[in-house]
Structure to design on (919 residues):
């Protein structure tokens, strides 16, 4: 049957649009979560929405599961293929169809990179606000699937706040539009429900995005503290003063050590924590807020404060933060990265408890986090030479997620559930909650062929092992993408 | 209407349940019973009992926007949420509040105001001195005010939701942290669903600090083209407006425009001076909004249209409205959130239903709102670039025109309805496409 399907898909996409060679297919066996690997049975590279619809129609007819993939920069195995399925790669759908500066909208194809939208909007003084760290290569279609955020989502919101229309191919192979670009279309908000559904409700073939007026001024401050507790007090004071920065990021001593070893970011020596605060908006407002944030950091015990005066200095401040994930490879043979969220006010208690759990287990944990919105990225460092160490790291990692749930938080703030965290879903949601979510799934995909096995707990998939990473993704190592 | 005795299972499910009275009719459809659950458990028991009895159910808060949407095909039981009126959690440092759905927006604003915070939905108060409705009602209707430009609509601010489905199942999605992508966002689905998918019983919202100061920079524009230029200048400036509203009482009148700037005192003073200069034409700065701000001018017994469009088409939409209204012999006042692409037109109740229907039909087919043509290489652009929804209207108008108009993906919407409410007992017929 697969041979018939392959032939038919070849007719749809052209001979060079179908990848069946086993070696070539291996290129697509994982996203950035390299611990989950699986070679797809077939890979197709459509160039139009019509081709995607035909491909999906053929898969649906043959009862073959299909998975969509953009640039493959996901962190949760959301685009993990199936050995028995078709992988639909959108990388040849890269047209920016139109930019409408008067309405502040752009219509783009799903394979267009996140940064390309901003680049195209720049001449009009506009930008595309969601800025996941992989924005140089990640695709807008993938951003829609994952409801991507980025360091600046504290102020500017997530993908779902910046998408006003989607052309999708339903799991039955129908082309249809969700939303009309206005942001106020009538009927159920299927656009909102689809965004962040991790590729399980259909495949995006066109996206209408909202463009945002570029801020007049941006300032970036770096403040060093003795402990994360002091840094956390500064964060509370900033938020308490009614200031909403574009981003507030924190790193602890171990994360700073790793970043220093990897990229020599020259953060203040001996700091127990560094805080990066970025303010954007009208120039005069930003100036006043910068002075206020400085004062609040000093009151909270900052030992040193630096301010970026230009783009180059801003890049220097962000360098350590942006390299943190990959950098821990310098101080540990393997690591697990988590993406839990806690209410901001619970941060100090949760960080203390993570330190205790880390000490009890004898496993180091480096903390890098979006302090403004309580999104933690604890990096659990271990030596993968023994299965016992892997297991212990996995247990600690799970305990950290439990801690997040205990404090009223979430198991994932931005990386998605994917294949990686589906087993944690029942810890956060009850059976009725999950069953209710399935109702939406059944409305869109009754046959269960669209990216099956993701988000919701099911038996483990082919090649699935706990989310351990041994080395940075090749794109990260090559400096093409960064990880937050 | 003769009072009907409450069936045993329904009476057993809820401490406060009784026969409906004339005032409980929804768009002319009289219910038989009204239940007032005081807890989520009680609400769940009421819906389970209603399922057993095969009753059609309609959720209601203060009833502020109960006239919006199509009339229900059937309505046996109204579930009144006003006893579900508690703030469950408000951790000021997290800028998050979790509340029961029946709490009034005004009461919640009072509580949050004590901490210098707000739920950023500046809904217009209903005519006749009624309030702004309940949290659940606002979510269910997707109602929003001028500051939607900056803060979005209820769906953008809700971060978690608890609902009771038609069979009594209680389900949660989201949570109480702003950043959260675990699982499907059922809250998005329920926002704007007009009670057709289930009963909203609790919701968590992202809050914002109350700005220390605000100023309104206001001037008249000669006509639609000038109004569009002004709106473009305001949103294209680096002055970060929170809202840009327009209002025009009749076709011959100038378009009044006003821009809201918010922030700290010094910043607002500086920016409003800059904006006054930018807008020119004798623009004035005021600390309070102009009298027409956020008001549609609609009478409760009239027709209120909500027109959503691509913001850059403002002048074309106003021209299309004028052409359609003039052809139908009407001249409705128009106004709304021009920069956010949503305006409202209010037709008096005295207008002939056929004329109103003619206006709506012509407007839906007009160039700026109708089929947009190919958006890509497939010849398949969005089926339209806007919508005209009849929010409320006299019965004769509702009979003469589809109040919702065409919606994209109606088939998927029906599939969603079938899954969530297979018996079609939740507010049947209220929603687009007869859902």
């Amino acid at each position: 049957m697969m041979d018939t399907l392959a032939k038919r898909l070849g007719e749809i996409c052209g001979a060079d649009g179908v990848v069946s060679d086993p070696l070539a297919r291996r290129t697509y066996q994982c996203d950035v979560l390299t611990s989950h690997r699986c070679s797809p049975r077939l890979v197709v590279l459509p160039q139009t929405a019509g081709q995607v619809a035909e491909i999906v129609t053929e898969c649906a007819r043959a009862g073959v599961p299909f998975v969509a993939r953009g640039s493959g920069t996901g962190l949760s195995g959301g685009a993990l293929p199936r050995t028995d399925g078709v992988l639909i790669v959108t990388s040849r759908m890269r047209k920016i169809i139109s930019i409408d500066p008067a309405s502040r909208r752009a219509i783009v194809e799903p394979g267009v990179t996140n940064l390309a939208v901003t680049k195209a909007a720049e001449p009009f003084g506009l930008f595309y606000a969601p800025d996941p760290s992989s924005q140089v290569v990640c695709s807008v279609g993938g951003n829609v699937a994952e409801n991507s955020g980025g360091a600046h989502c504290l102020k500017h919101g997530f993908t779902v706040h910046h998408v006003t229309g989607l052309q999708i191919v339903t799991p039955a192979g129908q082309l249809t539009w969700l939303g009309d670009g206005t942001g106020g279309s009538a009927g159920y908000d299927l656009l909102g429900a689809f965004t962040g559904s991790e590729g399980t409700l259909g495949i995006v073939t066109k996206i209408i995005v909202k463009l945002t007026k570029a801020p007049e001024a941006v300032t970036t401050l770096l403040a060093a503290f003795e402990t994360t507790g002091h840094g956390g007090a500064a964060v509370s004071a900033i938020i308490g003063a009614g200031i909403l920065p574009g981003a507030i990021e924190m790193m602890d001593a171990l994360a700073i050590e790793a970043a220093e070893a990897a990229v020599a970011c020259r953060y203040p020596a001996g700091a127990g924590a560094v805080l990066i605060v970025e303010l954007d908006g009208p120039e005069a407002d930003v100036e006043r807020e910068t002075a206020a944030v400085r004062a609040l950091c000093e009151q909270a015990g900052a030992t040193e404060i630096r301010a970026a005066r230009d783009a180059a200095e801003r890049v220097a401040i962000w360098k350590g933060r942006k390299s943190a994930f990959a950098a821990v490879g310098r101080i540990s043979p393997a690591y697990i990265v988590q993406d839990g969220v806690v209410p901001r006010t619970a941060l100090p208690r949760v960080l203390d408890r993570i330190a205790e759990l880390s000490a009890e287990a004898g496993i180091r944990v480096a903390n890098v986090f979006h302090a403004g919105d309580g999104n933690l990225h604890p990096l659990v460092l271990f030596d993968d030479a023994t299965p016992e160490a892997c297991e212990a790291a996995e247990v600690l990692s799970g305990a950290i997620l439990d801690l997040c749930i205990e404090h009223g938080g979430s198991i994932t703030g931005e990386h998605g559930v994917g294949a990686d965290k589906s087993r944690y879903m029942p810890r956060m949601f009850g059976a009725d909650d999950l069953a209710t979510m399935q109702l939406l799934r059944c409305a869109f995909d009754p046959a269960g062929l669209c990216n099956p096995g993701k988000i919701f707990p099911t038996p483990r998939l082919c090649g699935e092992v706990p989310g351990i990473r041994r080395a940075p993704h090749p794109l990260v190592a090559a400096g093409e993408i960064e990880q937050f | 209407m003769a009072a009907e005795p409450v069936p045993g299972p329904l009476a057993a499910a809820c401490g406060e349940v009784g026969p409906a009275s004339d005032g409980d009719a929804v768009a002319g459809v009289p219910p038989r019973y009204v239940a007032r659950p005081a807890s989520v458990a009680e609400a769940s028991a009421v819906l389970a009992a209603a399922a057993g009895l095969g009753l059609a159910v309609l959720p209601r808060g203060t009833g502020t926007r109960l006239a919006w949407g199509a009339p229900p095909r059937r309505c046996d039981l109204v579930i009144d949420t006003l006893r579900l009126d508690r703030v469950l959690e408000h951790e000021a440092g997290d800028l998050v509040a979790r509340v029961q759905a029946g709490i009034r927006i005004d009461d919640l604003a009072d509580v949050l105001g004590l901490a210098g915070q707000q739920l950023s939905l500046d809904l217009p108060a209903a005519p006749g001195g009624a309030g702004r409705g309940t949290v659940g009602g606002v979510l269910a209707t997707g109602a929003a005010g001028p500051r939607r430009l900056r803060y979005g609509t209820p769906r953008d601010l809700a971060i978690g939701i608890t609902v009771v489905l038609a069979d009594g199942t209680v389900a949660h999605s989201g949570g109480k942290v702003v950043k959260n992508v675990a699982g499907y966002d059922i809250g998005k689905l329920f926002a704007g669903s007009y009670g057709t998918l289930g009963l909203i019983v609790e919701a968590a919202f992202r809050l914002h600090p109350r700005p220390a100061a605000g100023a309104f920079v206001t001037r008249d524009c000669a006509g639609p083209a000038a109004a569009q230029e002004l709106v473009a200048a305001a949103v294209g400036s680096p002055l970060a407006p929170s809202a840009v509203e327009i209002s025009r009482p009749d076709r011959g009148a100038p378009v009044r425009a006003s821009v809201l700037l918010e922030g700290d005192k010094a910043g607002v003073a500086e920016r409003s001076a800059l904006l006054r200069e930018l807008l020119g034409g004798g623009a004035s700065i005021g600390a309070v909004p102009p009298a027409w701000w956020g008001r549609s001018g609609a009478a409760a017994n009239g027709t209120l249209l909500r027109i959503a469009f691509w913001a850059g088409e403002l002048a074309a939409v106003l021209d299309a409205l004028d052409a359609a209204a003039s052809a139908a012999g009407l001249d409705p006042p128009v106004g709304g959130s021009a920069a956010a692409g949503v305006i409202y037109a209010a037709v008096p109740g005295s207008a002939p239903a056929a004329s109103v229907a003619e206006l709506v039909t012509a407007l839906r087919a007009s160039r700026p709102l109708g089929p947009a043509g190919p958006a890509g290489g497939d010849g398949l652009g969005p089926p339209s670039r806007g919508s005209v929804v009849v929010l409320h209207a006299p019965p004769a108008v509702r009979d003469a025109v589809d109040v919702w108009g065409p919606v994209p993906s109606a088939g998927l919407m029906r599939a969603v309805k079938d899954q969530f409410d297979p018996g079609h007992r939740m507010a049947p017929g209220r929603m687009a496409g007869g859902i």
Observations:
- The first strand of chain A starts at residue 18 and ends at 19.
- Confidence is low (pLDDT under 50) at residues 459-471 of chain A.
